[in-house]
Each structure stands twice: as structure tokens, then as C-alpha cells.
Amino acid sequence: MPQLRLFDPVRHQYPNLPAYLIFDSQYLKKYSFANQPVGGAVPKTVSRAGTPRELAAQLGIDRDQLEKTIRRFNGFVETGTDCDFRRGENQWKLASVKAARSSNSSLGTIEEPPFYGIELRPAGGASVGLLTDLRGRVIHQRRHPIPGLYASGNAAAATEYGVGYQAGLSLAVSMTFSYLAV
Length: 182
Hints:
The structure is a single chain. The chain is α+β, with helices and mostly antiparallel strands. It folds into two domains: 18-120, Succinate dehydrogenase/fumarate reductase flavoprotein, catalytic domain (Flavocytochrome C3, Chain A, domain 1), CATH 3.90.700.10; 137-181, no CATH class. 29% of the residues lie in helices and 13% in strands. The protein has six helices and five strands, in the order H-E-H-E-H-H-H-E-E-E-H. The protein has helices spanning 2-5, 25-30, 52-59, 63-79, 91-94, 169-181, and strands spanning 19-24, 47-49, 115-120, 137-139, 145-150. The strands form two sheets. Strands 1-3-2 form a three-stranded antiparallel β-sheet. The radius of gyration is 20 Å and the shape is elongated. The protein starts with a helix and ends with a helix.
């Protein structure tokens, strides 16, 4: 998801928006969605359809382009290489029981109806926060540390992104900067 949050400060916009999460019934058989257990019901607010073209119409996106994107993505699954976003290239993510069953367990085809889609928007602690220096001191707008004022975690601006953000990177950063501040 780092590409979802990519922000262009010159144009003051997110160049990769709008963005959508598109998945099929195969996904729901393997993974949880919307805090539901694996195989659980998908909330009624999530668009669904019998074909990708019908789903595209519901989401207000180009039908031909969605079909083309799904074909391209399914081709990545066959080869085990995600040429667009490089999913699965990190060995620590592939070091699991699921990885032994395929060449890239981060990828799976989108082909079994019903098809689901939801628009994604950047949110959370990565969107705002106080700018800090390497010691966790809050930086004044004139670019000097404010004496005695420190910030870490979600109170501080996120200055790093990476493959581990969903697995506790914000906690690690908070602990590190809190330690440095103390």
C-alpha cells in the first residue's frame, strides 16, 4: 500500500488515486476481510458482481481497462512475478507454509465469481503528525527543535514507509523514538 499513500507535494495530490481493491471469492476462502473470519460474509457496502465488467460499472470505472488489468495481474500469478508492485519479493514474507505451495504466495488469480471491489483512500497515522528530528524532538516551523517537546508514534509525522508498515512498523518507530527521547 505504500503506492496508495504516495503524495506529490508539487501538485498537492495523490497521483495513484482513485485506487480500488478488487478480489474474488477465492480470496475470501483464504483470508479474512473487514474483520470477518475467513469465509465470513462481506459487508453489504462492498460492491459485488458476477463479472468484472459488471463490477466496473458499479464502481464507475472503465470496464475494458479493469478486464485488461485483471488479465495482466493473473499473468503475474502464472509467472510468480508482480511486475507492477513487486509483491512477494521480500523473502521474509515468503518464508511461510503457504509460500511452499506456490512460487509467490503474495499473488492469487482473480477469476472466481462473485467479484468484489471497494475504493481505497489513504488514512491513519501516516497522514498527519508533528515533524521531529532524529532524537524525537518536535521541530518548530522555523526548523529548530522546540525545547522539552517530544513526539513519537501516531503523534509524530511518518517519515518512513516500507514493507513492514502493516506488521508493526509504527510500533517499532514509536518505541525507537521514545527510547531516543528519554
